[in-house]
Specification:
The chain is an alpha+beta fold. It is about 35% helix and about 30% strand. The strands form three sheets. Strands 5, 6, 7, 8, 15 and 16 form a six-stranded antiparallel β-sheet that branches.
Length: about 375
């Protein structure tokens, strides 16, 4: 059974959970909830229960299902190119459907432990002419399409479903949180040709690049804010709990530092050294995969919980060649990102409707690109 009046989008982070309830008839009538920090599985379940209780109270209805936003170092992005000859025939939407379905089956065969959660069309090439959106009423001799598949491990999906099943809640759809957020935030930077969103989380850093407002590539690095915590713990010989406190409050709690006899200068050096390393790794990935004109600069937008240890007064202390801005995220902006993506507002993404009856045909319905 679906929720009667509200769509629920829940961002299940590694240390924090955020949720938004959007009225199906009036999205301006929305409710939001955010958890405290948690450190383990039991804490996360407890925080989910609190959020559900809060949303049910505000919406005045039982919560039966959610759309889940997740991020993980295990997320995999796979890019492939597919082509077909048409010998001057008119291009039909079924031809695109066939190529997309063929690409999907290739991914599922070669990555049997993964499930696809996003299918993104980077480019159409019709008779060697590039199109960002599918051209209509056109004849061609050859067609090729470049597709990005963003995938989650099946085990992770089943584990998450199990958590919510115990709470009598089903999961409608999975979203990659960092990718979903970038599709929403990029509209605020439409005047910038080359832009990269760097989402620094607990154990991962996601990179989403856009060139002229169209996605160029998506990649995940298995390094994040928790690595900074471990650095602090190792160098200062403190436990991980104190190391996390030092990381989050090193410039705000002088008494704590004095009590522990810790050097603010040394703490800054530890933190900034690791951040600079993460940014350099991001830069290498961008230059390798971003298809940017090397003669032009690109802007990097830092976001995510891991980036919150920086602010504008510390940004200048980062030794880094590219232009960096810090994005101050809100629970509203995060949840609305997945809502917009789920409503099909991103023209590059294929929206998939799962098969319900065998008579619906050989492939799942692929729509939105063909409207």
């Amino acid at each position: 059974m679906n929720n009667k009046n509200f769509e629920i989008y829940l961002d299940f982070g590694s240390s924090k959970i955020r949720a938004g309830a959007f009225n199906k008839n009036n999205t301006a009538k929305s409710f939001y909830s955010e958890s405290n920090y948690f450190t383990d599985y039991l804490n996360s379940v407890s925080e989910i229960e609190k959020i559900i209780s809060n949303l049910e109270k505000n919406t005045n209805e039982y919560l039966n299902d959610v759309n889940l936003m997740v991020d993980s170092p295990e997320i995999l992005s796979v890019s492939i190119s597919l082509s077909k000859n048409f010998d001057g025939l008119k291009l039909k939407k079924e031809d695109i459907q066939f190529l997309i379905q063929d690409g999907k089956q290739q991914i599922l065969r070669n990555y049997s432990d993964l499930n696809i959660i996003h299918i993104i069309i980077k480019n159409y090439k019709v008779d060697n002419v590039d199109y960002k959106l599918l051209p209509t009423d056109i004849t061609c001799n050859s067609l090729s399409i470049d597709i990005i598949f963003i995938c989650l491990p099946k085990k992770m999906i089943e584990d998450l479903k199990s958590i919510f099943f115990k709470l009598d809640i089903s999961i409608n759809q999975f979203f990659c949180s960092s990718y979903a957020k970038s599709t929403n935030y990029k509209d605020n930077f439409s005047s910038i040709s080359n832009i990269s969103f760097i989402d620094m989380g607990f154990n991962k850093t996601s990179i989403t690049c856009y060139n002229n407002n169209e996605i160029s590539f998506f990649h995940v690095l298995p390094i994040g804010g928790n690595h900074i915590t471990k650095d602090i713990s190792k160098v200062l010989n403190v436990d991980l709990i104190d190391a996390e406190k030092i990381k989050l409050y090193f410039d705000k709690n002088e008494n704590f530092l004095n009590e522990k006899k810790l050097s603010l200068d040394l703490i800054q050096k530890i933190i900034f050294a690791r951040i600079e390393e993460i940014l350099e790794l991001c830069t290498k990935s961008i230059k390798l995969n971003g298809n940017f004109d090397q003669s032009h600069k690109y802007k990097m937008i830092l976001m995510g919980e891991g980036s919150k240890i920086l602010d504008n007064k510390f940004k200048e202390k980062i030794i880094f060649s590219e232009e960096i801005d810090l994005l101050d995220e809100t629970v509203e902006g995060i949840c609305e990102s997945a809502l917009k993506l789920g409503e099909g507002l991103n023209k590059q993404e294929v929206v998939v409707v799962p098969k319900k009856q065998i008579k619906e045909g050989f492939f799942e319905k692929l729509f939105h690109l063909f409207k």
